[in-house]
Amino acid sequence: SAPIEGFITNNEIVSSPVHMCTIAKLYYEEQFSSHQFMQSETEIEANNVDIEIEEVLKNKPPIPIQITYQHLRRSVASLKNKNSTSIDGISNRIIKLLPPNHLSIILSCLNNFAVTLQTPSHWHAAKMILLSKTKSKVIAIDETRPISLLPCFSKLFEKCFLIHFRQWINEQGILPAQQTGFRPGHNMAVRIVAIIDQIGKSLEKNTAAAALFVDFRTAFNQLWFNGLWLKLSNLQCPLYLIAWLRHYLKGRKAYINIKSTSSTMFNLSKGVPKCSCIGPGLFIIYHHDILEALSTIHWKHLFADDLAVLFSPSPYMSSSNMINTLTEQIKLVLLRLIKY
């Protein structure tokens, strides 16, 4: 995407890096602000679960995850060979160039972090750069996409944890077959082929087909932590996995960097870091049950936070009835999504 040269605010163009950082910080600080408590039954239940988990972890800490040398080697190999650095000035490329005997030192450190659930403070800080959602270089702040540059050793720790987390998810069969986003062995091509095939079947029957494509705005930014603990608790997630995730999400901060100028730090009280290894996995687990809200619809497809729903009425309907039926079905799905 084009580099951002300025922000449009109050019908004026702001191009000063300092002022741009201030505008961006205020916007994203609000995006990642604490969940607004509305006293709903779900919120009360989630808060109670949060308190219960905290008490259990204090009184009886679980056995931590065990990272093996094979886990570490696999995680290092999966790092993208990039030169970009975060707050610590270390890149993936540097880690991938380390001699094999250095990995044993890293392994010892990571297992110690897993046991104590204590990690360097800068691992919880993200350098946030902004990309334009459009081709324009001068845009409104809500037309930006945040990319979090995280410490590379922190991402390595995430990847090692993700091996354990995915194993639990797969063993329990939690994710629906229709979800193909950020899952090894699944890809978007499968969903696209299925959608085309289903439209083709409707045409073969001489009936209409309609598709509803839903993109949830700032979806990753809105993940509610206590809601996550409630979902994981209901799924009977092992406590050692929850303990790791609570440490990972607690006390996270970020700063905006534009044209080599940085804002002050701000808190990330909800949401998952964009471009983190664990973020997409947490998101799809958090919304693993979204398709249950659409149980009467036959054709559903998910790729992370992108949802597609296909409708096909009876071929024996008149054209006008087909259109009316499709319209009502689309309205029903939207209402169910709002309720969800």
From TrEMBL:
Residues 112-340 form the Reverse transcriptase domain. InterPro entries: RT_dom. It comes from the Eukaryota. This is Reverse transcriptase domain-containing protein. Transmembrane segments: none annotated. It comes from Rotaria magnacalcarata. It holds the Pfam family RVT_1. PANTHER family: REVERSE TRANSCRIPTASES.
